[in-house]
Design a protein that fits this description.
single chain; alpha+beta; four-stranded antiparallel β-sheet; Immunoglobulin-like; about 210 residues; 9 strands
């Protein structure tokens, strides 16, 4: 006849023996802390030095860029202005041409004469030429001595017209009485486009009464 208490399982002999020998709970395998992998705590000095050197180089590079930026080397370039395709092209101003030439169209040669009293020097000729592109009307005028009668020199003709590129002879006759005389004869054009007037200087000897 079986009892009313619970039935215990049949334990192995070695386990029960271990239980009996220790007099307590069975001994389970416990991990030994000395058996852990050394790689979990050990850091390679080479890797640590390389990492530290890279950080130092990066810091030096950042400081160098900051100094160069403050010096203006890396200042942003300003974009050059570009002409719009629709903007009209600017043309350089053309200087206004002067209608008055630096040298006159009328030229007289020679520019100086000496009038005497004999037949060889009392009457002489000069040439008045129009070197301009247009016809010019002109008139002879005395400066410093008044009219031809007062100057003692007769100019013939004393006015006229010259076509472009033509010339004509002008006669000078000495009619001076008494003392010698001198003066200037200018051949004045009627248009300012012809430029300054050419002039002829003369000296006339007194031929008596």
């Amino acid at each position: 006849m079986q009892g009313d208490g619970p039935t215990l399982p049949n334990l192995p002999t070695d386990v029960s023996g271990a239980t009996r020998e220790s007099g307590g709970a069975p001994a389970w395998p416990v991990a030994n802390r000395h058996n852990q992998s050394p790689s979990a705590r050990y850091v390679n000095p080479t890797v640590l030095g390389f990492s530290l050197g890279a950080n130092v180089a990066l810091l030096i590079g950042l400081l160098g860029l900051l100094l160069l930026a403050r010096a203006g080397i890396f200042s942003p370039a300003r974009p050059s202005p570009t002409l719009s395709a629709s903007a009209p092209a600017l043309s350089s101003p053309t200087p206004a041409s002067s209608t008055t030439p630096t040298s006159g169209w009328l030229q007289v040669l020679p520019a100086s004469v000496h009038l005497g009293c004999d037949n060889g020097q009392q009457t002489q000729f000069v040439v008045l030429e129009n070197t301009g592109p247009e016809q010019v009307q002109w008139q002879a005028n005395f400066s410093g001595s008044g009219s031809a009668d007062q100057a003692g020199v007769e100019v013939s003709p004393n006015q006229g017209t010259l076509d472009a590129g033509t010339s004509m002879p002008i006669q000078l006759h000495n009619r001076t009485h008494g003392a010698d005389s001198q003066g200037t004869i200018s051949f004045d054009p009627d248009t300012p486009d012809a430029g300054p007037s050419p002039s002829l200087t003369y000296t006339a000897a007194g031929c008596g009464d």
